Model the fold of this input.
Amino acid sequence: MSQEFFIQGNEACAKGALRAGCRFFAGYPITPSTEVAETLARELPKVGGSFVQMEDEIASVGAIIGGSWGGTKSMTATSGPGLSLMQENIGYAFISETPIVIVDVQRGSPSTGQPTMAAQGDMMQARWGSHGDYEPIALSPSSVQEFFDFTIKAFNLAEQFRTPVFVMADEIIGHMREKIVVEDDIEIIPRQMPEDKDNYLPFKNVENGTNPMPAFGEGFNIHVTGLTHDERGYPDTNDPETHNDLVQRLCDKVLNNCDKICSVKSKSCEDADIIIISYGAPVRSAIEAVSVARSEGKKVGYIKLDTPWPFPEEEIKNLSSNASDIIVAEMNLGQMYYEVDRVLPNDVNIHLIGKIGGLMPTPDEILSKINEIGGN
Amino acid sequence: MRTEIRIGGFGGQGVILAGIILGKAASLFDNNEAVQTQSYGPEARGGASKCEVVISDSEVEYPKVQSPDILVAMSNEALIKYIVDLKDEGTLIVDPGTTDIEDVREFIDQHNIKVFNAPATKTANDEIGLKIVANIVMVGAITKVTGIISENAAIESIKDSVPAGTEEKNIKAFKAGYNLI
Done:
């Protein structure tokens, strides 16, 4: 039997983590993500898990990398200022192929900015925040239900691809309350452990499927490092080929599986002249604007990015093949806007509704833009 | 149909819990859809506090209140600050013990606002002996005046939302509020 709850987005996130099998949380509480930590501090001990309040966010990611190599699904939650501090260790998690989940409930920024107000200013930080080349996976929930669902999906993707996964929420979705339905039957991907101790290569290329990952203390001789390494994990920092093979493989394991990872939802795009592209809270306004515009006979549709990263390039190109105008509605001064502009042909007009200040774009603001473009 | 409700008061009066109870009643016990949001300013007890609920028989997309159909004012500051957003012919429920309706008389007359007095604080004090249940008394008054949630859903939602062991007192408070109007 499914269960129903009327809860906050942040509580739904914590519930999703528990359901996904997360048994270790290390973090430094920060508004507007604090309820994720609060809920897990209360609930993790009840299921045999551990919660540690760390000294800062640098240590938080360090701790969950350790937790994950200890064989435990691990997560942290933060907001922009914390995500900034985490970047060094996030790079370490990428190169060491450590499955972890990082939840960012975005607030007004830069710096300490607007702690209690919503924003989506960290999208490029999730993409490029740590130094070097890597391909992150990020999910953006638009409802409390999705914050639950996407947290579980983030853990599954992290295990499947042995990589850090971001859940890029925002203050609106984190703090609002809605009904969620928790089904009995939810797919959970468990940690894949290796068996053969003699021939195990922790960083070898696995074309299809997941390279299994042992837990510390189980008798596998492995070396985990942030340095460029070979398949065994041994540093090999001067050979161009080793570095190229490693970094290319880290990117390819995500890029070659975009069809499995990328997810968009869309409506009324087939005959649309104007398409609204959004993710997170602004999707709610986009959906309402489309339904109003359609009732007035205007050919308008929307695309919702469930996974801003990897950028769902093919899906966007296919869905907007008949559109003359695209409106990107987001709570920053243009981040995913430039990605949309990058992938669509030059004859498509790309417009930005870039709203900062803490509030989401309203349906009326989107409708005015549609009228300004001249939707009919 | 979409109905927007805003409840404003002092921090510490429990206006957030009142909104959660309304939203939960609608979505879990009345089979409607609801979204509850609140202001997260640096308010502490005594400062301004605001809670918003959108209730609809179909999915609620835009989650915020733009122009409330129903305003519940538990402080004079909230009354003066939020009355200007209230829809024409909207419903205003005030606690006369903590607000002065004369401060907004002009707006009420110009916009044909329907006004209901619910002395929640006094009722909580006199009938329950607990000032802190004024918010639940107000939930009773809101339920009766607006019919936005059913009486049964409200009671189930209260039981599901208040600390264990306080259910009886809270339901008594709800009923006192329900019978005020």
Summary: Residues 328 and 358 of chain A are 17 Å apart (CA to CA).
